[in-house]
Amino acid sequence: MALYEHVFIARQDLSHAQAEGLMEHFGNVLKENGGSLVLREYWGLKTLAYKINKNRKGHYGFFRSDAPAPAVKEMERQMRFHEDVLRVLTTRVDEHSDGPSIMMQSKSSHKDRHRSRR
């Protein structure tokens, strides 16, 4: 099986619980088709760089998965048909990094790393 990273953006008018429910649903689609979730993160409601379908903000969700290609294609297909999902991006990676994604790391750790480089 291959390793993937998935990011999706859901509509701004969803509640936090509904966005988490979407993540749970799409994670189950992967599992039902023979894949496994390595990591699931909710990045929060963020401002978009430009309007997408009249939305200025969006709920961002992130997955790391170990899944066969048909499972990923099925999940992407369902995401693209779902009315609450604005955008989807899936990337195949050689290996998953340890720990949380860059978006979830605290800003203080970024400042500490920046100071140590000087």
Question: What report would you give on this structure?
Answer:
It is a single chain. This protein has 118 residues and is of the alpha+beta class. 35% of the residues lie in helices and 42% in strands. It has 3 helices and 4 strands. The protein has helices at residues 16-32, 69-81, 107-117; strands spanning 2-11, 36-52, 55-67, 85-93. It has a 4-stranded antiparallel beta sheet with strand order 2-3-1-4, covered by helices on one side. Strand 2 (36-52) and strand 3 form a beta hairpin. The longest helix has 17 residues, at 16-32. It is globular and about 35 Å long. The mean pLDDT is 87.
Present the secondary structure layout.
Layout: E1 2-11, H1 16-32, E2 36-52, E3 55-67, H2 69-81, E4 85-93, H3 107-117
Antiparallel strand pairs: 1-3, 1-4, 2-3
Helix pairs in contact: 1-2
